[in-house]
Specification:
Strand content: 25-35%
Largest sheet: 6 strands, antiparallel
Radius of gyration: 17 Å
Number of helices: 4
Amino acid sequence: MNTVTAEAPAASARRSCAWDLPHDPRSVALARHALRSELGGWGFSPDHIDQAELVLDELLTNAVEHARPPLCVRLHCPLTRPVVRIEVADGGPSAHDGPWTTSCAPDEHGRGCLIVAALSCAHGEGPHGEGGAVHWADLLLEDPAAPPAPRRHG
């Protein structure tokens, strides 16, 4: 897994990173670990990191199972808003589904899009490169730089 870009907060108005990944089911675990490390370093809570990890897992698993290589994961977090955008770019639709999808009953898969919709404030897809696609989800998270909300007493 290669870090393609990493922008320091002082150098731009957002935090951003990206990883090129092998088109392999094991890449999902590698990407989850990298996301957990990156968002933890950006100061997000474990609960919000768990949500982001689940969304990444669904988007990337779909790419491994249903798309062609190459795969690239990108995280974007503007410094002015408590939103993390998770993007998974792929090489476009594959002619055949992956081994997990073809090995199980139809009712054992197909809920990933519902999970992404439930955990994100926005999600979608668009073209990427020549024939590829990018699938993305925005997660509304607390701002790690914001002071805690005042507590009500009494």
